Sequence to fold (454 residues):
Amino acid sequence: MTDRFVTRGFVGRRTAEGSGDVGSRIPPGQYITRDFPVLSAGPTPRTPLEQWTFSIQGLVKEPVSWSWQEFLALPAREWTVDISCVTKWTKLDMRWKGVSVDTLLEAVELDERAAFVIAWSDGGYTTNLPLADVLNGQAFVAYEYDGAPLVPEHGGPARLVVPARYFWKSAKWIRGIRLQAEDQPGFWESFGYHNRGDQWREERYSGD
Amino acid sequence: MARPLDWQLATVAGVHDETDTVRSFSLTLPNWGGHRPGQHVDLRLTAEDGYSVERSYSIASEPERAPEVDITVERIPDGEVSPFLHDVVVPGDRVELRGPIGGYFVWDAAQPGPLLLVGGGSGVVPLMAMIRHRARVGAMNPTRLLLSSRGADEIIYREELDRMSATQDGFEVVHTLTRERPAGWNGYSRRIDEAMLSEVLEPLGREARVYICGPTALVESAANALVRIGLAPSQIRTERFGPTGS
Fold:
């Protein structure tokens, strides 16, 4: 039984993967895809690697910046995570290689007022996250997907990955993070999407 | 705190076949605050036992049609929702809906100036909302739609587009067919490429606003080509669907 409106004639296509252990990994309103869909708001930026840097700025004692070669030399690890996009697809067991945000933040001394992170990207994209939501292994900057360099369409050379949030928080083409005392809505957060974006609470849109 | 986008019960007022595999549904909404051309809605279908699915669909109709909106749905043979919408839903049925959603891939007549719309297959749907709105309010800004379809029978909104293209209000549709072309076809017959985009853009000039919607490969190549032609990335807004092909 359900207290939702029942759609006349709708049964749905129940698959084995929609139930049991796998089903428990699918957030509400999502469906499983085996593809890796591409979504973005504009043309794909292509910054030459020799010009690429990753920086940490804002409320830190000394800002830090890495070149591409320096970034690749940082301690990295492999991550296998489930990803959910607000457009309703969920992809299980996505394999990435990248650097934990914890590792990146070890290179700076945080001002005690720092409470929010703004991730910014080539092309002008931004997204906001509470600092607490990217610490302790909850977020990483990935440069490999499925054993190969991350392609530009999927955010290469490097993208943020925050598995516990809808995928728009995982900024493609990331070039740095800025620490702030105050929260500041990013790109999609300013266009009607939820400020936090927790897929398990189905926080898709502003007001959810 | 923002007002939540509440689910509401839309009533199917009509269905209309666009092609053999594409059907439009007119939905009447009890509580609709209006939309901007390019936005989409979420649909939620629920079975007797509570099993529920959600999908997003672009709005095809112009805001002036409120409180009715049209969605246009391509039947995906192995899909879970589109075959249900095509095969089961009839006028009088009700479905849960909320929206409008999305505030970036939007255009309305308050934004003057030349407009280039590039669509692939059912990617034309949100562009159609812009085109219908433009015609409805009598905007005269130079506007061209470059629409890529597989075959002539698969061109969505073909009659309406060709009719609007003939009214001399500054709108023109340019077709390209990628698989089959009928005898006597004198439009383009290849995938969208840089040379084609240059030709279609030419009368509009390089200041045109651009909206591209379609499968990822089409959107990616069209957006990249327009940047090579010299448009600023900030002039180009994209919406993509479908896998990368890998």
User: Anything to note?
Assistant: The mean pLDDT of chain B is 94. The radius of gyration of chain B is 18 Å. The domain at 8-101 of chain B is CATH 2.40.30.10 (Elongation Factor Tu (Ef-tu); domain 3). Chain B has two domains: 8-101, 115-241.
